[in-house]
Every structure is written in structure tokens, then in C-alpha cells.
Amino acid sequence: MVKPPQPGSLVRREETLGPLERRTLLSRIVGREPSEAAPYLRAILAGLKDAGAKQLEQIPVLGPLLSGAGAALLELSSEEDDAILEERLAEILETGHQSRETLEALTALSTAIYLQQNALLARLESAGFPAQPAQLTAVALSTALAAYRGRVARDYQYADHRGIEGGTRAEHAASLPLDEVYVLPRLVPERSQADSRERENRLLKDLLDNEDLAPGDRSRREEEFALLTGERWRALKEKEKAKTIAEALGSVRHAVVIGSPGVGKSAMTRFLARTCALGGEALREKLGWEEDLTPVVLPLAGYADAKSRQAGLTLREHLDARLAERGGDALREAVGAELQAGRVLVLFDGVDEIPDSRERILVVKAVDQFLADHAANRFVVTSRPYGYVRLAGEIPHFQLPNFVPEQVAEFVQRWQKAFERWRHPEAPDFAQAGKQADEMLEEIRRNPKVEELATNPLMLVIFALIRHEQARLPEERVQLYNRAVNTLMDSWNRGRCLAGIDVGGAQLPLDRLVRVWSRVAEWTRRTKPTGVVHRAELKNKLIQILHEEELDEEDPAATAESYLNAAADRAGLLEERGKDIFAFWHPTFEEFLAAVEVTTPSARAIERILPLRDDPRWREVILLAVGYLGIVQRDRETATALVRAIWKEDPGPLEPLLHSHLRLAAACIADDVGVKRSLAEEVIVALGAVVCELPYGPFIESFSQTVSGVPGLRPTEAMVRALEPLADHPDWRVRMEVARLWANVAGDVPQARSICLRLLEDGDPDVQCHAAFGLLRAGLDSPEAWRAFAGFRSSLARLKKAGEHWLATVPQSRILSSLEPLLTGT
Description:
This protein is mainly alpha-helical and 826 residues long. It has four domains: 14-155, no CATH class; 184-399, 3-Layer(aba) Sandwich (Rossmann fold); 406-591, no CATH class; 711-826, no CATH class. Helices cover 61% and strands 5% of the residues. It has a seven-stranded mixed sheet. A three-stranded antiparallel sheet has the order 8-10-9. β9 and β10 form a beta hairpin. α2 packs across α3 (68-75), α28 (636-648) runs antiparallel to α30 (660-670) and α30 runs parallel beside α32. The chain starts with 24 loop residues before the first helix and ends with a helix.
């Protein structure tokens, strides 16, 4: 037998409601039998309506009841049909669909019931209901809770991403509906990461605090530190035992989730809060949890700030004050009852965001006490790894890692579908959205470095926004990095204004901000092998740069401080990796900005870059520097001169044996950085001669990557002749790549056509495929060519996109005619 609800109880959980047919919406709110629920609430609404505007005006928080949705709510007291009354109220109370005005009216209604109990009890008695103050209080609390959950669901309905805030939702595609774009994360239990993180922290302390380390010891520590921190940017490995968020958090009542910048901690908090606010059915559908939870999101930095102004403030007192501000005493009491019953999911956000380490420790102790006092509830605490102070007790810890490739694909598909619905709400074309998703994934996957960067959810969103603005991602990764850096710096400027600390100083325009941080990046690359720098040293460097560049001569210290505060508070180009220890968020950003610096001004680029050629730490910077000149600055002359100088100037005694400068120049060509075609041909021919004479792995790899990096290159007759000996090279990769080149001119250069015919009989199917592609495009159809071309989708051939595009232009009759001998056996 189901126990009937007690007067004063919050009747909301389904197990207390009786048989399904009796669980009407009004009975859940009012806590009475369905036959009494509508008349009971009608009497309450009539009592408030009769109180009149004059009486309601005396209580400012009841203002929303005087007009609009509030007035319409009170007018329902005139509805005599119980079924219609319940239907109208169901529309008003349906969580996730209310307007802000409706939610404000519901909040005001709960407050009015809570404050006007004496008058309302008299009105209920006159309507034939016994005076039950506890029951009337329960109605006020249930209404307050319904309004609160509706507001939480509404507040978190969009996927706003920290680090790229800005723009209105009507114009900014970053704010698509959370339900449509959110990809459920996977969590890694602490045991698979704890050892490496502890070792990382010890190494960092050794490197920063121990100036007497021997050079060899320092070098080994630096290498190990780089390896460990790099692991945080790799997609989750299959061998690591990841759990879905539903499994990981569903099996424990309390959990800590640790995540690096941009991996989605804030998005996870929004998702969990909104899902709980939408009710038990949403929790079952999305997470498989058989509960009905009220969400409470509590940023810990806000508590630390309040505590600094009110000594002795407990976390529960802070929560009560926030609830009272949002929904009055009715909401404070309602959530208190939910906490008492163990029906709350408390989301403590951002342990690391408390600036002072001593305050952070005190706040963590307050969290420990709150958990002990309300242990029956669910708790999730989030933090970055650096700055996290461990909670007491045996609380499970999880790492929130970057996306794996499957999650990247799921996000892109979800994002494109949601974007299509946002752009064409009346008639979305989801087939077109699917096509756009496939194209975006292909654009991401064409460059391994871009593909790795896209595993970070925030960077993936930035890539999606760049593609939204440009219709496609830039083919050159340097252009993509440039757009991403500009996006993050623009957000940094906004974050500086939102940092909450009035330190004065100047806000730098985007071009000047790039100038300052490109100099910082070059300095850290040159002087900080670990990539980390103390705050005081970084601040002094910023002040020096601001002086030298004449960007802020009034208060450069305040300007530097404001940008460091903003970096510590939100995801961006720079992250705080520990107390007063900073580093660039991802090595790519340091490398790109350092490349900007060494090419500014462009007239000094050769002079500054040549001494760096033999240092492997600068290799990526050099590649990006050439790309920045040739692609972003559109200075092909300087880019070409720089690559030629890298190859030719001051070769050194080992260059004839190692060809390291030639291979570096070839890597620039492979990056498709905008140098002139004539130099690309010279480099490829020179590298081809090396591969002929010295068929060693590094040279073969360099040659293959260079040619595949410029797939559209059309070699001259002289280049075709120079590379002809490679048609018999023992390595299939070399033969395939020269076949790619010859295929581009098989219709125009007889010698290239002749070589393609010879390679049609090569022992490797991918070599045959490229040779056949050249012959078919030249109009030289044959059954053998079509049969060899059939393998163009091979991942090794790397011909899928070009092959499909060309094949779509070929009449089917031509193919059938060519294959007729095979089909008929003649």
C-alpha cells in the first residue's frame, strides 16, 4: 500500500503519488487528490487576485503577478472547468518550455503564497477546505521548486563555451541548443592517470626550484616533463579503461572530475544541471539514472569571494543566500527539504578558480564539511589538474580527457545538424547537414596536427565556427591556426573585462595583442624548454615588451596583470598550471606565435631563422614561419627566398651526408606554404637524386611526404626526365609518389605517359592505381587501366577524394565500353 502524502511534505517523487492514473500535474503540485486539486488551486489564485494590485505592490518581489504572464496566471481562477484549468497549468509548468516571463510569474506566485498564508487560509476555508498551514506551505515550496527547475533548464539550454563567449544567440552559432550538440563524455578513473600526474608535479617542482641541477639531469627531466604533459593532449587510448559519464557518475554518490582547459568541464556541468532540471524521465533517457534530482550549481570562486567579505560564512549559508536571492524563502526552504531527503545533485564548479592557495584550501575544507553534512545527495566537483586541492576521504576521482575520433565525428555531425536547424528552422535539410559534416571531418583529417588539435572540444567548436564563417576550413593549417588564435585572443580581451578585478591598464587591440604575445612565445621557446614560466617573470617580460613596443606607457604593470588574471580565470591561449606558473595552453599556439615573431619584420626573417635550422625544437616554428609569410601575409617572394636560404645557405660539413637542410626545405614544400612552383620542383628533384643514391628510410619518408603534400603539382618535361630513374626504385612509396606526379601530366608530356604505361604493370596495386588514373584522365582507356584504378579508395593510395570527383564526371557508357572485353570474355 502506498503511504499517503503527509501535510507539509514536498510531494514530487513518483513513488509517493499512488497509481499512475492518479498522478496528475496538479496533484503533484498541490498534494491533494485529483478531484480536489483544481478547486484547491483555483481558490488560492482567486485569493491572490482578490488581494488586488495595491496589496501586491507593497511587496516588490510580487511585481511579476501584476501584468503579463502573472496576471494571466491569476485569471485562471475564473476557469470553472477543472480539466481545462489543469491543461492550462500543465502548459505553464512544463519544464524546458517556459518563457522567462512565465518563470518569473511562477516564482512570484510561490512567494505570494508563502507570504500571504493567513489571507489564503481564510479563502480556502470559505471554499470548503480545512485550514492546513503546512499544506499551503507545501504548495508554495512545490511551486518555487517547479519555477527554479524551469529556470535552470532555461539558463543551460544553450551550449555556450567558456573561452569563446560573445555575440548574441541570434547571430552566434556557438550557442546552439545543448540537447542537440552535446556529446556524452567518457571519464577515466584516477588510477590510470594518477601516477603520471604525481610524477609530472614532482618534475615541475624540481625544474623550477632546483637551479643547481646538472645539465644532464635537467635535460632528462625536461624531456620526461614534455612527454608527460603531451599525454594530456592525446586522444584517449583504447587500453585505458574509460567509462561513460552515466556509468562513472551513476555508480557513485560523490565524484571529482579533473580536466584540462577546453575539454568540457563547464559543458558537462551545464548538461548535468539541465538534465536534472528536466526531470526524472530526462535522467532515465539520457543517463539511465532511476532518480529525480534537483540540480544546484555552485561556483566555488563565488563562495570564496563572499567568504572574503563575510568571515565565518559557511557553504550552506552561502547556498541559502543564493537561493533566497533567486526565489525567496520559499525556494530556500524547498531546496533545503530536497537536501534533507537526498534528492539533490550539487555541482561544485572550479576548485582551481580560487586565486589564493590558502583560500582554496579553506574552501575545500568547507566542501568537505558540506559533503559530510549532506552525504545522501549526489555531488560532482570539477577542477583543472593544476590548482586542485584534494578533497578529504575516499572520493572517486576521474579524468575528463579529450575526445576520441568517434566523439569528434559525433560532435561534428550533431553540430552541423543543429546548425542547419538553426539556419533553416522551417525546413532544415538534414541530408545537406550530413554532407557538410562529412566534408568537415575530411578537412580536419587531412592534416595530422589539425586532427590532434580537434580532439580538444573547445578547439573543435572553434574549428566549427571558422568553417561556419568561411564555408570550409582553410586548407593550410597555418591559416587555420591564425584564425583560431585570433578567436581566442578576442575572447581573452573580453575575459580581461570579466575577470572581476579592477586593475586598470589598457585593453590592447587584436593586432597589438598578437604582437605582444608573439614576442612572449618566441622568448619562452628560446629560454624555457619546459614551456612553463613563473608569473612574476612573465609579468616583468610583458611590462618590458609593452614599454619597448610603446603600447602602454601609462601603466603597463596593470595591463600585464589584467591579462594574466584573465588567463588564470578562463580557457584561452595561456593557462595557469599551478600557483603562479603559466604556460601556453597548447604547444601549437606557442609555436605559431613564435613563428609570427621571427617573421616580423619579414625583411629580417632569413637572418633570424637560419641560425635555428639545426635545433629540432624550432623545426615546427620554421615550418609555420614560412607558411605565415606565404599564406597569411601573401608574401610569396620572401617565403620562397626563405626556403631557398634554408636549403642552400651555409650548408655545413655534414649536409652532403645528412641532407638535413634539404629535408627541412622539403618539409616546408610539403606543408604547401605558398612558395613558388619552380623552387618546389628544384627541391623535389634534388631530394629524388638523394633517394636514388641513398635509399634510406628518412630520405624516402621526406620524399614521399613532400610529393604527397603538393598533389596538384604539374612537373615540367625536365622534371619528368630527372625523376624517371625513380620508376624502378625498390621502395613502393617512392614509385607511387612519382607516379602521382607523372599522372598529372600524362596527357601532355609523352614521356610521363610512357612511364605511366610501364607502371601499370608494377607489382604494387597503389602504384598501378596512380598510373592508371593518369592514363584514364588522358583518355587512354583500357580494361587494365580501369581494373587498376578500381583500387583508388585504398587508404595507402590517398586518392579517394580526387578519384571520386573525377569519376563523377565520366559517363557510365565510357566505363562499360572500356570494360566490355572483361565482361564478355573476349
